[in-house]
Amino acid sequence: MNPPTNDGVRLDAITFGYGPTTVVRDVSLALPAGKLLALLGPSGCGKTTLLKLLGGYLAPSAGRVFLRGRDVTALPPEARNAGTVFQNYALFPHLTARQNVAFGLEVRRVARAVCDRQVDDMLARVGLSAEERDRKPARLSGGQQQRVALARALIIEPDVLLLDEPLANLDRHLRDQLRTELRTLQRQTGVTAVLVTHDQEEALAVSDLIGVMAAGRVLQVGAPADVYDRPRTPFVAKFLGAANLLPGKMVGSAAEFVMVRPEHCALNPEGGRWTWTGRVAGVTFLGADLLVDVTCDNGLSLRVRSRATERVQPGDLVTVGAAEHHLWPIPDADPPEVTLTGAGGDALSPTFPPA
Ligand SMILES: Nc1ncnc2c1ncn2[C@@H]1O[C@H](COP(=O)(O)OP(=O)(O)OP(=O)(O)O)[C@@H](O)[C@H]1O
């Protein structure tokens, strides 16, 4: 079968193990050219391994890898035209920023004058000042080093840009700023990109598509809002943000859980078909919002995100309501090797363990 020409990246049934331990299981996905895919999942789920399989640093035990419609499964990294940015920058310490970025062009024997111009253009695009360009990595901040790493990856006009937690070592403010810059640059250059992250917000904020991974599988791929609003499994629901998972079925659905996000729950609504009564177990002040945890008579715990102007205290008797269109019956179960609790600690404990 010929892959469609708008393919940026395609994985067909990729499986990989370190020795006998399988860490990537039968992964298939397609990313159109020019789009950014965020691979999101808890530590150890196989994100970096999948990125290495894309870059050619590892070879799959089964399946095929296509970049720009070309079957690269048997090709080594240097024949794949992939640009890579790692969490730890991995710049050449003895070279200046300029020389680091020029390296990829020199290997390709680009003429000196052309090379100089392109390197300067690229370093300007990533926001490095003229003076910083002549510094070695040790004299650049983490954010500046990551800008150089990005320039170095982009200057070769890669078929795919592979980003392995590139912002993880930066402080929060810089991380937010750089992720916006990264996204702008990716859009401007039109490069197809795959970003590995365990940060839900980062994945939702920068990507065209999110692939949620757990235990070596990609459980769902879709547009951020789609995956957030319509998760296919309980794990996906929980990993993308706080979720109330109500055990039980809605009429016409085989789902075992119905999801409602805390921001779609209201305290003491007037009327409504979907309401639960209980006592406030805890209140967390977040500035603009409050998180209100409610324990219902039947043992159910519900979290409500409401405006901080709401006046509630632990012990108050309240009603929690949600509009029917915000109730999402989760269509699939998690695969057996994926456990909500085992995969990521407390944040992933199901609110309502299955009976
Ligand atoms: N070189 C290796 N040899 C053996 N096992 C490995 C090796 N590298 C990774 N693993 C294991 O493979 C699994 C997947 O690792 P991988 O680094 O792909 O996960 P990850 O999702 O990127 O995690 P993190 O977010 O912590 O980097 C983990 O269980 C890990 O311990």
From TrEMBL:
Residues 9-240 form the ABC transporter domain. Pfam families: ABC_tran, TOBE_2. Keywords: ATP-binding, Nucleotide-binding, Transport. InterPro entries: AAA+_ATPase, ABC_SmlMolc_Importer, ABC_transporter-like_ATP-bd, ABC_transporter-like_CS, Mo/tungstate-bd_C_term_dom, NA-bd_OB-fold, P-loop_NTPase, Transp-assoc_OB_typ2. The keyword Nucleotide-binding applies. GO terms for molecular function: ATP binding. SUPFAM superfamilies: MOP-like (SSF50331), P-loop containing nucleoside triphosphate hydrolases (SSF52540). It comes from the Bacteria. PANTHER family: SPERMIDINE/PUTRESCINE IMPORT ATP-BINDING PROTEIN POTA, SPERMIDINE_PUTRESCINE IMPORT ATP-BINDING PROTEIN POTA. This is ABC transporter ATP-binding protein. It comes from Gemmata palustris.
